[in-house]
Protein: Endonuclease/exonuclease/phosphatase domain-containing protein
Organism: Mytilus galloprovincialis
Amino acid sequence: MSEIDLVDVVIGNYTQEKKRFSWRGPNKKQARLDYFLVSSDFQPMITSCDIGVAYRSDHSAVFLSFQLNTNEKGK
């Protein structure tokens, strides 16, 4: 991913092992099925990222909040 300048936002925001996985199966197997990839230029604008709870699916929603620069150019 670094070759095309993409960053996995979920891994970057979660150091806790529990939140890093979006799927849990039998025998304590865990996997990442859901990602949110952004350009490294966009990464500083991210204010929060969270993995939602999956009901009846093997996929979880990944929620991303960000703050755009609201300063007007030239002022």
User: Anything to note?
Assistant: The chain has a mean pLDDT of 72. Residues 9-13 form the longest helix (5 residues). The beta strands are 6-8, 23-24, 30-31, 37-39, 46-51, 62-66. Helices lie at 9-13.
